[in-house]
Amino acid sequence: MRHSLCSLLVAAIAAVLAGSRSFTAIGEWVADAPPHVLAPLGIRRDPLTRQFKPPDEATIRRVLEAVDANALDEAAGAWLSAQVNATRARTRASPRRRAALAGKTVRGTRHASPGGQAVHLMAILDHQACAVLGQVDVDGKTSEISRFRPLLADLDLTGCVITADALHT
After folding, report:
1. Virtual CA dihedral for 102, 168, 127, 120, nearest 10 degrees?
2. Cα angle at 126 between 123 and 132, to 5 degrees?
3. Share of residues in the chain with pLDDT > 70 (%)
4. Which of 37, 47, 99, 155 falls between 20 and 30 A from 131, CA-CA?
5. 61 — phi, psi (to 5°)?
6. How far apart are alpha carbons 24 and 63 in whole angstroms?
7. Residue 43 CB: number of other CB atoms within 10 A?
8. Confidence class of residue 37 from pLDDT cuts 50, 70 and 90?
9. Residue 128 to residues 60, 97, 121, 158: CA-CA distances in angstroms?
10. Residue whose C-alpha is closest to residue 22's, from 65, 52, 54, 51
11. What is the reported pLDDT for 155?
């Protein structure tokens, strides 16, 4: 059975949003999801039996391990930014766009790095859309200050007020 990359990613995201915290839990969530949930996720149906055939845990694991996380993050951020701009244009929202920039250490990631240091990310959030427009990894050898400009470089921030920690002034 072949599954599209998009359906695998969307199914994994839905499982994580529902509380799954491991590849096994993601696979179990997808396997247990009812047809009315699998259909919008793009999960394939068997053409003969018309039954949904969700991907197994091994397929989900293999795909998620192979995906370039930075490229996916950039694509998702660009898409969200375009959606925010399109919504603002349609609704004639307040002319002053607002965004917040903050860094956070991700819980439960200490075991994932070779040095035992937890993953630290810096992200920018659009207040109106409640959407993260972009994020960058802040490794232990740099600081948020050095990652500030690269995070904002590809975003259209015309007329935007950005709030950030005082260390960025």
Report:
1. -20
2. 40
3. 89
4. 37
5. -60, -50
6. 14
7. 21
8. very high
9. 33, 8, 21, 15
10. 65
11. 81
